[in-house]
Amino acid sequence: MTHSLHLFPLLLAGALALPAHAAEEKPADAFFRQLSSLCGKAFEGRLVEGNPSDTRFREQKLTMHVRECSPEVIRVPFHVGDDHSRTWVISRTAQGLRLKHDHRHADGSEDSITQYGGDTAEAGTASLQSFPADAHTAKLIPAAAENTWRVEILPGQHYSYQLQRGERRFRVDFDLTKPVALPPAPWGAKP
Length: 191
What we know:
This is Secreted protein. By secondary structure, this protein is of the alpha+beta class. It has one domain (about 25-180): Beta Barrel (Lipocalin), CATH 2.40.128. The protein has 4 helices and 11 strands. It has helices spanning about 1-25, 25-35, 55-60, 135-140; strands spanning about 40-50, 60-65, 70, 75-80, 85-90, 95-105, 115-120, 130, 150-155, 160-165, 170-180. Strands 1, 2, 3, 4, 5, 6, 7, 8, 9, 10 and 11 form an 11-stranded antiparallel sheet that branches. A hairpin with a 3-residue loop joins β3 (about 70) and β4.
């Protein structure tokens, strides 16, 4: 019994140290960890905000697949029906996170409009990160120079991909409560 009493202060100190360590995790790291926890799973989504030009996103099956995960990069193909051209690429930077849009043709070659996106400018939260358009995006797509993409993850609830530019709004929500069958490999990726 006396031996157990001597261990109590050590156990208490260890328990108290855990929350302090968890509090040190940066929001971008927590967000990246949460996205990584979905690796290997696919989820169906629906357009919840858009404009008349977004008709195909309303009419086609929308699927995201957290397909490739490493400690530095996560690749998330976004399938729109039989169109497997889009992949969201979220990677770590020295200051936070980067979102890029990798667009491919069916033969795997890059589209002329690809690799656009931006880096986080603020810490964000463990569940929400914002990516203002970078200089490459402004040069590639001048109309998108004011874009801000937002990605939200509410574990066990939903994943949202959002675009904001002036009055333009686009948002797709994916249901994380119901994993679905894995889609084919995105164009340009190995099966």
